[in-house]
Description:
Blueprint (H helix, E strand, L loop, with lengths): L2 H26 L3 E8 L8 H15 L7 E4 L12 H16 L6 E3 L25 H7 L6 E5 L2 E5 L3 E4 L4 E4 L3 H12 L7 E4 L32 H8 L5 E6 L5 E6 L2 E6 L17 E8 L4 E8 L6 E8 L2
Amino acid sequence: MKRRNFLTTSLIGLLGTSALNLRASEKKGNKRSLRFVHLTDMHIQPGAIQERGIQNLLDEIHSMNDKPDFVINTGDNIMDSLKRSKENTEDQWESWRNSFRSKLNYELYNCIGNHDIWGWSLKDKQLEKDPLYGKNWAVKELGIPNRYYSIDKKGWHFIFLDSSFFDEEKHSYTAKLDKEQFNWLEKDLKNTSAKTPVCVVSHIPIISTSVFFDGDNEKSGNWKVPGAWMHIDARKIKDLFSDYPNIKLAISGHVHLADKTNYLGIDYLCNGAACGAWWLGKYQEFPPMYAVIDFFEDGSFHSELVHYNWKHKNNNINTIASND
């Protein structure tokens, strides 16, 4: 760990997040544009354990001294609907509405996770005729204008992608942008001012280091990362991104592990999972967590992971990414 990050991590317990962020911005003479909380992989379903965990998560976010402007949620809202019946999926979304959405006190921006997609793995032709089939149900519940979209907030441009591409042979998904979405992405970036900093939001990481450790990926003697764990079209996407130096970072979840990967000047942040190991504690070295991200007027950012205890109100904040 770099000495600066070590000192930052050590001081947080004494000064608190607000003091550190204020000190960083004052030192640079750089004004903060906005702050948001990044949640991902809540995997909500009916049950006392999940409901208690979500309530503890919301209690912490709502009690922040330095309040966020909004919340970004990068998918896998419910436990799973790829293989679940319509009745079971409705129960999960009802739990999501009652335990999370109706209680969140902030503006919320969502993208779709693979487990939010209904019925892809059921191999039922009749089911495919249902208007809620596939991603339609998630679009409806999440209240998003489309499965991919973009917004502007306080001088920053946010692009929300749909990472899950239907694999007809496996009746599952791979991480890839379909042609329609990629063409839209090209146009969206082209139509965004070169002076406007951009944040790309996706469920599945475009580029990530931690995916190498999400399984025995080296057992064959060569590293093999499944295309469902990281964007299989990452080369094509990074080639596009290389034409736009105003893209500052990309945030994601999916693998329940956390890392920062800098490639060609863009920071790719995979920010763990709110549920950790599906509400059973740590997944490998990573407990339940969320991120707090500050954006500044000059296009820099500061990101911190908050390790919260879903059973008790006790948290530890670790700085893993910053370009300030």
